[in-house]
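Let's practice the habit of predicting before peeking. Look at the sequence and jot down your guess about where helices and strands might fall. Then scroll down.
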Amino acid sequence: MTAAQERLVSFESAGELLHGVIHEPLEETQQALVFCHPFAEEKKCAHRSMVEAARACAAAGWAVLRFDNRGCGDSPGCFEQYDLNDWRLDIESALECAARETSSAVGLLGLRLGATLAAEVAEDRPDVACLVLWEPIVDGERYIKQNLRRSIIKAMMTSHEGGGSGTTAAHTAGASGEGTVDFDGYSVGEAMREQLAEVNLLEPPPVYPRPVLVVALGAGEAMGEQLQRLADAYTMGTARAVRQEPIWQRIGVMDATPVISATVEWLRQQ
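Done guessing? Here is the structure:
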């Protein structure tokens, strides 16, 4: 392990200024990684774990750029103003920033929808040094249904506690594809839902030619069919199942050591 330092950085994407943090080793940098955060409430839940992962990678010799997409975190704009195409462009801009700031080859590490967007960006960027995909969203339509179902259940519970039936009705309408729906406090309109529904990392099959680590996080040691198929679809794909509490599901202190250790071990082998 080596010492590391952190510094703030800003860079432009489509004329807007994004903000991030660079974690870098004090000694020679092996390569660099851009971290791609998950969607909506999952980003908030996973923040601490992503910071810990960045520090661990920097201590292992990898520079890391963590940043917020437009409309998220410390970057400008409102969440509802942007879509998946905007955030793909933000990742591309972050790649350029990391390359400038570290003078290194740059890979991508993402969690959940951040992993999905990273994988999509890499399809058109063979210069991306490697991909680390933590529990990526493989099927966007399935992801929407899961989120809507969870939101409806929460709305029903709130209604029983005196929150009224209007919220439940709005979520039910959203489940049928109508109007704007609430994803844990984040408004998601029809256009965004249509983009999410089009996400499918298996169709067409990926052509990214460099090393890829696909990580499944859960209580067991099984990859799950979709994630195993995704890893197998890459020319240089590796599948890894990690016993790890889902770091994107709950705000609070979680021990992300298992997935961080597995990732650092894989990076050292590249």
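How did you do? The first helix runs from residue 41 to 59.
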